[in-house]
Design goal:
By secondary structure, the protein is mostly helical. Helices cover 75% and strands 2% of the residues. The longest helix has 37 residues.
């Protein structure tokens, strides 16, 4: 019987702590050192993640946006659904931004945690790189959404322009003759399917990547690296819990006029499945059954809102991306301006639309955000040690938000049998 991925990652994490502590940075044979092996394997895994960025984000956003247009439901129901998804995702990101600025997990005893967690790039170089990215004011953020050359933007890691282009491409894909649009849709759906398989294949090596990245940090800094990670973990968990236990129930109560406790009870099987699988796509059949059979939402609403939500509504993921990027910036000792934080919020909102509903796909999205604001992609390795548990938690938030959307839109469409005690 093969161990599930999260158990493999946990075992790799424990082995990495032991291996890093024992070998340090100098142990080895002649010119060969264990530390260089950790560095090689960790870099190889990070390169594999970065390799996925452009094709995965383009294919997922284009197929997601074009599928919305194909439903012929972008009338009243579609407008309400998209408004709900954008609103809750934005609220989730702002909750994460508030929590990470309040707690500042990247700061330890008043100093940036860069040395403690073993980040190799120096703060001055990173700050200069951010300056080169041109995020000095909010206006420039919008200018970078429309690049002069989309291929050059993708090559230089200017993901904001690539995301905007993908959204436009997906939207206008349904505005050309049907014969042409069907051919293009089949192409992008095939690309997306291939990228999903490649992502799943790369993630099979996650235990090895986690082992190498964590062992490297422990070998160079010792166990002190886990202190800021623990604070980051608690910050993210607290923000997710606030969105899950306060924001979404308030929307159910104030906008939908339903008892939130009844909805928690109705969604229990789907939430447990989402938590254990860390995949909103795999949980979708159970989510639809819970919303329709246990919460009483009509099939008309459920069949439109939930499949769309599994594609474009990622509250927990968007929140996590924002907190992770801010944590890494704090660890480098960077005091990001309002415009730079706005850039992170905007990119987190847009990338959450295109994040595949599979375990750990948000690591790719975080890499996009880091590249877009000029932070080193290597820093993603910093959060791998705690990513799996947070992945399970944020997937449950994603699924619950989808279900709340179905309930609210059903109520706004005049359905009266929803969540009757």
């Amino acid at each position: 019987m093969r161990l599930r991925l999260h158990w493999q990652i946990l075992i790799a994490l424990l082995l990495a702590v032991v291996a890093g502590s024992v070998t340090g940075t100098d142990a080895g044979y002649g010119r060969f050192t264990f530390y260089k092996t950790y560095e090689f394997l960790g870099t190889l895994f990070m390169n594999a993640l970065k390799m996925l960025i452009v094709p995965l984000i383009m294919s997922s956003i284009i197929t997601g946006i074009s599928s919305i247009g194909r439903t012929d439901a972008l009338g009243r129901l579609g407008a309400k659904t998209l408004l709900y998804y954008l609103t809750t995702s934005l609220i989730a990101i702002l909750v994460g931004l508030f929590m990470v600025n309040l707690i500042q997990p990247g700061i330890v005893d008043g100093e940036p945690a860069r040395e403690i967690v073993g980040l190799s790039s120096d703060s001055a170089g990173v700050a200069a790189n951010i300056g080169d990215k041109g995020v000095g004011d909010v206006i420039d953020v919008f200018l970078r959404m429309v690049p002069q050359n989309i291929v050059q933007a993708a090559a230089q890691g200017q993901m904001l322009g690539l995301i905007f282009f993908s959204i436009l491409f997906g939207y206008f894909l349904n505005r050309i003759p049907e014969r042409q649009s069907q051919m293009l849709q089949m192409f992008w759906e095939a690309v997306f399917s291939i990228m999903m398989h490649i992502t799943e294949w790369v993630m099979k090596f996650a235990p090895l990547g986690v082992f190498a990245l964590v062992a490297k940090v422990v070998a160079s800094t010792g166990l002190a690296a886990f202190q800021p990670l623990a604070v980051f973990f608690a910050t993210t968990l607290g923000a997710l819990a606030f969105h899950f236990l306060v924001v979404l129930p308030l929307l159910l109560w104030l906008v939908g006029g339903v008892n939130p406790w009844l909805h928690y009870r109705a969604m229990a099987p789907a939430l447990l499945t989402a938590f254990s699988t860390a995949s909103s796509s795999a949980t979708l059949p159970i989510t639809m059954e819970c919303v329709e059979e246990r919460a009483g939402v009509s099939n008309r609403t459920t069949s439109f809102v939930l499949p769309l939500g599994a594609t474009v509504n990622m509250d927990g993921t968007a929140l996590y991306e924002c907190v992770a990027a801010m944590f890494i910036a704090q660890a480098y000792g960077l005091d990001l301006s309002v415009a730079q934080q706005f850039s992170i919020v905007l990119i987190a909102l847009l990338t959450s639309i295109g994040v595949a509903g599979i375990p750990a796909a948000s690591l790719v999205a975080i890499t996009i955000i880091l590249a877009a604001v000029g932070l080193p992609a290597e820093a993603v390795g910093l959060i791998l040690a705690v990513d799996r548990v947070l992945d399970m938690c944020r997937t449950a938030v994603n699924v619950f938000s989808d279900s709340c959307g179905a309930v609210l839109i059903g109520r706004l469409e005049g359905e009266t049998e929803i969540l009757k005690a």
